[in-house]
Specification:
Length: 463
């Protein structure tokens, strides 16, 4: 146990100092840029706010709650054969001797010290299905475990009353480790599981954060049946993930519940490996946070890159307009009042006549200067009202031309920010012209290449 404790400790004091330092750095260097471009900075900080999170998801009755009770060494979660749990339960540590407490979902979501503010958008219906239980268990000293309602086959959002997969997606984004649990009865055939793997998880968590578990293998009628179930799950997984390689699948069962544990004792090590992997979640955390920050800031960089190109593109067009405008203004300055006199008889002495006849007075400049200024004013408002929106529309139609998408990673990042860029170009192109995008890009570059890299190296040393 002492060894296990130490391992869990790998996310201890040094790690906390690192997180605090990182938060300060983010506040100093990234927050102003996020604010300038309307990005949600607090979202970026959410994973820093709390302990490492392990999310347990999977089809109903796959043994999620049983496994969690086993980890905690006590019966905290209800278990049962039919779909048992319809709530998300956040299991967090309590101080020794503290009575087990249960905090309702609405309080959990509103608590600024917890990272769940993003769940507010799922409304009252979700808060009724969310709670936090404080449990005194050594396992919860270094991490938090979230038990979830089992995934079902024929349910819709209306049946659940809230967007179940949306909630799973948000929680997966916060989690450092996701346990995706199956059982041999429905090895990967459940509709919500399919939707989660296909649609929800890829957007929220990187692949290396997901552990696949085939649980309750003792329910198989011997090894032939087990091989069949395993094969079915592999096949279904490859259909769902689109990956050709099969990730490691932990084959586990509860030794306490097994009908004939001896028949499956060859797999005992798998359960232990899984528990060890979960104990290692805190060590993964700093990397997880850095990955998130990296992804978000790179998203911002690509966005700013697009705005910078848009601005310089319009600048080039403006140069032509300005050249034409200056020439026209010069002509108007010297000949405008002459033309006016030809048409209307006034003014009595145009500027050029005054200059040539030696009767120049400063007052003669007034009218030509006003004409030139009027022209500039007209050109300015034409540029703003007509030329700029037209240019923004053109840029929007070929928005990929604003960024250099030379790597698959950049393409991936771009797919996340593309809509934002389009919306900005359409809604406020003039604001984009007044920002020093290139200077901001240099700041972002410096943050990614210098500051963040330093933390990656720190994290690698600690791991
Ligand atoms: N034989 C056997 N039974 C198990 C095992 N794990 C869980 N069970 C039983 O399977 C049933 C479902 O287990 P739960 O832990 O409630 O499953 P769950 O995934 O939390 O289910 P939901 O909360 O409904 O999504 C319970 O009756 C457990 O006693 C196992 O490894 N072997
Ligand atoms: Mg359960």
């Amino acid at each position: 146990m002492a060894g296990e404790e130490r391992q869990a400790d790998s996310g201890g004091g040094g790690y906390e100092a690192l997180v605090t330092e990182l938060e300060l750095l983010l506040r100093r260097r990234v927050r102003p840029l996020f604010a300038l471009y309307g990005h949600d900075f607090e979202n970026l900080l959410a994973p820093l706010k709390w302990k490492p999170i392990v999310l347990v998801i999977g089809n109903y009755s796959s043994g999620k709650s049983t496994f969690i009770n086993e980890l905690l060494g006590q019966t905290v979660q209800r278990t049962g054969q039919s779909p048992t749990d319809d709530s998300f339960t956040i299991l967090a540590g309590a101080s020794p001797g503290q009575e087990p407490a249960e905090i309702p979902g609405s309080t959990v979501i509103r608590d600024p010290g917890l990272p769940f503010a993003r769940l507010e958008k799922f409304g009252e219906r979700l808060s009724a299905h969310l709670r936090l239980k404080q449990v005194a268990s050594p396992f919860l000293e270094k991490m938090v475990i979230i038990d979830t309602p089992g995934m079902l086959d024929s349910v819709t959002e209306r049946d659940r009353g809230y967007d179940y997969l949306g909630v799973v997606g948000e929680l997966a984004g916060l989690a450092d480790l996701i346990i995706l649990m199956f059982d041999p009865f429905k090895a990967g055939t459940i509709k919500e599981t399919y939707q989660a793997i296909r649609g929800t998880l890829p957007g929220s968590a990187s692949e290396d954060r997901v552990l696949y578990v085939l649980n309750r293998i003792d329910a198989c009628e011997g090894s032939v049946d087990l091989v069949r179930s395993y094969g079915t799950l592999c096949w279904n997984l490859s259909q769902m993930t689109g990956r050709k390689d099969i990730p490691r699948i932990f084959l586990t069962y509860s030794p306490e519940l097994a009908r004939d544990g001896a028949a499956f004792s060859a797999w005992d090590g798998e359960r232990r490996d899984l528990v060890e992997a979960i104990r290692g979640a805190p060590a993964k955390r700093i990397n997880h946070i850095l990955q998130d920050v990296d992804r978000e800031v790179r998203g911002l960089r690509l966005e700013v890159e697009a705005y910078a190109r848009f601005k310089s593109g319009f600048g080039a067009r403006l140069k032509n307009l300005a050249g034409f405008g200056s020439l026209a203004a010069l002509l108007l300055f010297f000949f405008g009042d002459l033309l006016l006199r030809y048409l209307t008889g006034l003014p009595e002495t145009p500027l050029l006549v005054g200059l040539l006849s030696g009767e120049f007075r400063p007052g003669l400049v007034l009218l030509p200067a006003s004409l030139a200024a009027l022209l500039f004013l007209l050109l300015y408002s034409w540029g703003k009202q007509v030329s700029l929106p037209r240019f923004a529309r053109e840029a929007g139609r070929e928005v990929e031309g604003l960024v250099l998408l030379d790597t698959a990673y950049k393409k991936d990042v771009w797919s996340r920010v593309r809509e934002r860029v389009l919306a900005r170009l359409a809604a406020e192109p003039h604001k984009l012209l007044w920002r020093a995008h290139r200077r901001h890009l240099r700041k972002i570059e410096r943050f990614l290449e210098r500051d963040l890299r330093r933390y990656y190296q720190h994290g690698a040393k600690k791991a």
